[in-house]
TrEMBL record:
<protein>
    <recommendedName>
        <fullName>Metallo-beta-lactamase domain-containing protein</fullName>
    </recommendedName>
</protein>
<feature type="domain" description="Metallo-beta-lactamase">
    <location>
        <begin position="47"/>
        <end position="248"/>
    </location>
</feature>
<dbReference type="InterPro" id="IPR036866">
    <property type="entry name" value="RibonucZ/Hydroxyglut_hydro"/>
</dbReference>
<dbReference type="InterPro" id="IPR001279">
    <property type="entry name" value="Metallo-B-lactamas"/>
</dbReference>
<dbReference type="Pfam" id="PF12706">
    <property type="entry name" value="Lactamase_B_2"/>
</dbReference>
Length: 284
């Protein structure tokens, strides 16, 4: 298996429209790997996509993805779902009088499917695409798993209940992917010791280079979002051989170069942690 990071940003991508901060100016000037699009990744082997941010079409177009066996959605938030129209772009056939559309299977954990029915019109949109034959919706009951190309894929709920991670297993190889929101989550023993873990970075309450506080203690985001410090504690608990942190927000004020320095600090502390960038590829 191999993971391709299609988008390493979060709900506020880099550069942010209209923003003149150091991070956004540098991203506009240099492009990749300083710029970041919305959160999405592709797992080569089973050939599955996880989430479709607004830039999903452009992400897939610039990637090396040739075969798409299906897509999993982790939760209902806009930064993970608002590129749903990619299924129209990928699969609709305009060339033939009698259309020969392609169909992509969309896998939804049961709670995600329920949330799609009440948030952002996701269920209505995907159902309309299904009626046209462009997607097939598969709702996975709690604890269910599927197998694609010899890879077993198991969605698992995080502490917040509405967001899911995914365990990929192929023979003796194990990959853990958590796209977002590890607030109050503690990993189950079955997830520990993975060959690779892809996790969200968490909110930079403190600057990880200087230790200086960046956010007030009463900032509302701290009431329901995991911090970078929380993430590092989860990294220790997971004991994965290699970790890549993604879902990197513009408002954290950290450039690609800054995060390379943070990774060096973590590696000196014995943590094999790297930070994702758009187009990054990692073998499991």
């Amino acid at each position: 298996m191999k993971v391709e990071i299609l988008g390493s940003g979060g709900s506020f991508t880099i550069p942010r429209p209209g923003c003149g901060c150091r991070i956004c100016r540098e991203a506009r000037q240099k492009g990749l790997p300083y710029s970041r699009t919305g959160p999405s990744l592709f797992v080569h082997g089973p050939n599955v996509l996880i989430d479709t941010p607004e830039e999903a079409k452009e992400q897939l177009d610039r990637s090396r993805v040739k075969k798409l066996a299906g897509c999993f959605y982790s939760h209902w938030h806009g930064d993970h779902v608002m590129g749903r129209r990619v299924w129209w772009s990928l699969n609709y056939d305009f060339q033939h009088t009698i259309p020969q559309h392609r169909t992509t299977t969309i896998y939804l954990p049961e709670q995600v499917a329920a949330d799609f029915r009440t948030n952002l019109g996701s269920w209505q949109h995907l159902s309309a695409l299904e009626e046209q034959g462009l997607v097939k919706l598969v709702v996975l009951k709690e604890g269910a798993r599927i197998e694609l190309s010899g890879v077993r894929i198991t969605p698992f709920p995080l502490a917040e209940g509405y967001v899911y991670g995914f365990l990929f297993e192929q023979r003796d190889r194990k990959l853990v992917i958590v796209p977002d929101d590890m607030f109050r989550w503690r990993p189950d023993e079955s997830l520990r010791g993975a060959d690779l873990a892809i996790l969200p970075m968490g909110v930079a309450e403190f600057n990880p280079l200087t230790g200086r506080r960046r956010m007030g203690k009463r900032h509302p985001v701290l009431a329901d979002e995991a911090t970078f410090e929380d993430t590092i504690e989860i990294v220790r608990q997971l004991r994965a051989k290699s970790v890549v942190l993604t879902h990197i927000e513009e408002h954290d004020g950290l450039s690609y170069s800054d995060l390379e320095r943070v990774a060096e600090k973590l590696q000196k502390r014995g943590l094999n942690v790297r930070f994702a960038f758009d187009t990054m590829k990692v073998k499991v």
